[in-house]
Amino acid sequence: HVSVVTNDGKVLVGILAGIDRVTNIILKESVERVFSQDEAVRQVPLGLYLVRGDNIAIVGELDQESDSQINYDTVTAEPLKPVVH
């Protein structure tokens, strides 16, 4: 499992199914975690999802054990701001 942060501030989580030389990645069983200061994290199912390499800010391995212990129904957080180059 990986977590991907895109240049526009989206947080995607899924199983890394493929990657190419320009860092386009394919996620399967993916969800978008939508953060808000006013309500709990929404997890929007995306399924099989392609992320263009030029839109990726960060990709990291997700510790499933630690992640499964977080109750996202009670988490609020400010959304990430877009990356500015």
Q: How does this model look, in words?
A:
The protein is mainly β and about 80 residues long. The protein contains one helix and five strands; from the N terminus they run E-E-E-E-E-H. It has one helix spanning about 65-70, and strands at about 1-5, 10-20, 25-35, 40-50, 55-60. It has a five-stranded antiparallel sheet, with no helix packed on it. A hairpin with a 7-residue loop joins strand 3 (about 25-35) and strand 4 (about 40-50). The longest helix is centred in the C-terminal third of the chain and has 5 residues, at about 65-70. The protein is globular, with a radius of gyration of 13 Å. It starts with a strand and ends in a 17-residue tail after the last helix. The mean pLDDT is about 95.
Distance between the termini: 28 Å
* Average pLDDT reading: 95
Number of strand segments: 5
> What is the percent of helical residues?
under 10%
Question: Strand pairing plus helix content: what structural class?
Answer: mainly beta
What low-confidence regions span 5 or more consecutive residues with pLDDT below 50? none
Q: Note the beta-strand portion.
A: over 45%
| Helix segment tally | 1
Strand order of the largest sheet: 4-3-2-1-5
H-E string: EEEEEH
Based on CA inertia axes, which overall geometry fits?
globular
User: The biggest beta sheet, please?
Assistant: 5 strands, antiparallel
Radius of gyration: 13 Å
